[in-house]
UniProtKB/TrEMBL annotation:
Example GO molecular function: structural constituent of ribosome
Protein name: 60S ribosomal protein L23
Family: Belongs to the universal ribosomal protein uL14 family.
Pfam families for the chain: Ribosomal_L14
Name of the coding gene: RPL23A
Keyword Ribosomal protein among UniProt keywords: yes
GO cellular component: ribonucleoprotein complex; ribosome
UniProt keyword Zinc present: no
CDD domains: Ribosomal_uL14
Lineage: Eukaryota, Viridiplantae, Streptophyta, Embryophyta, Tracheophyta
One Gene Ontology biological process: translation
Keywords: Ribonucleoprotein, Ribosomal protein
Amino acid sequence: TGAKNLYIISVKGIKGRLNRLPSACVGDMVMATVKKGKPDLRKKVLPAVIVRQRKPWRRKDGVFMYFEDNAG
């Protein structure tokens, strides 16, 4: 709580590949820094979970889901 803007550094469980940025979706654990928010949270690497994403994804029952914004 208190973080307004996050910058994702890495995604847990994703192996690296040269020149490829790691991608995360809803439910993924990421390591992020706080760009805007409380001063005691800034300038640290913190774990976060993606809870909403704007890009549509398909559920196993065939429904496509997406949200209005991205949030973690």
